[in-house]
Hints:
By secondary structure, this protein is mostly helical. It has three domains: 2-85; 91-194; 201-236 and 251-315, no CATH class. It is 78% helix and 0% strand.
Amino acid sequence: MFRLITNWFPKKFRSNFNSLVIYSRLNFNKEKFLGFFAVMSLTIAILLSFIIAFLFDVGFFLVFLITFFVIEIGSYFALSLKADSVGKAVEDILPDALQLMTSNLRAGLTTDKALLLAARPEFGALSFELDRIGRILALGGNISEALLDMSKRIKSEKFRKSILLIVSGLESGGEITDLLDQVANNLRQERFVDEKIRTNVLMYVIFIFVAIGVGAPMLFGLSSFLISVLQENLANIEIPENTNVPITFSKITLSSSYIVTFSVISLVTSAILGSLVLGLIKNGKEKKGVKLIPVLVILSLFVFFLARFLIKTLLGGSFGI
Length: 321
């Protein structure tokens, strides 16, 4: 059944989804997983929609659309972030793996043996791929084709370019030990530069995080309290009709609940956009900041309501609120 449901999806969509499953190192049958995922998402969305519609007395269809959309988007980002995490781990360990393969080759081992012995458990996903390539070579496979296939199974542009560089050197007749050694040194230098860049932008990250998570909520809390004070005071001001006063007072029509709702929406929007900006600054990809969204949203709302409570507790009696 799951295989049949999977076949309903467009071929390009199935291909992209299966690639994410491979990148994420999920041990599922890719011919069935998309169908299983669709059925589970639909079931969870229906159950949650019934519960939310019953508890809050809202339309089931609208809640179902929103819930299903949130589940799909959240699942996609979870898979994508998992794939990026695996790729980043491979990038970090790649120089050591290449150096180990170089040592094995210089010790006189054959290429397939060098790859198999370099497949250490601490290398994680890269260990599985090296072991897989070593077995392919032992069965008479082509090393260039095996390396190119490996580059398609790990989501990392740096890893892909490193493999392409090695394959290009092999096909042009270069010595594999020198190639691996040079690529490993280049990757270490590039990692050092990346760490230096991250250190330089750390202050920007801290400033944005504090501004969105603490500064803005405190200002919104203070401004919402001031509006409540103005509403209370202006409602008690009475000016005689025959008095020529060059100042006019009009009643504030905005309710306190509207101000709070506006503040909450603004803070949530700022937290979402700010998280994406932090991901872009820190890691070079906006989606890397998705995992910060819950943290910033919860922190900003907590600070906002805490600020309102403290200001109202300390100053509310002075203004009769």
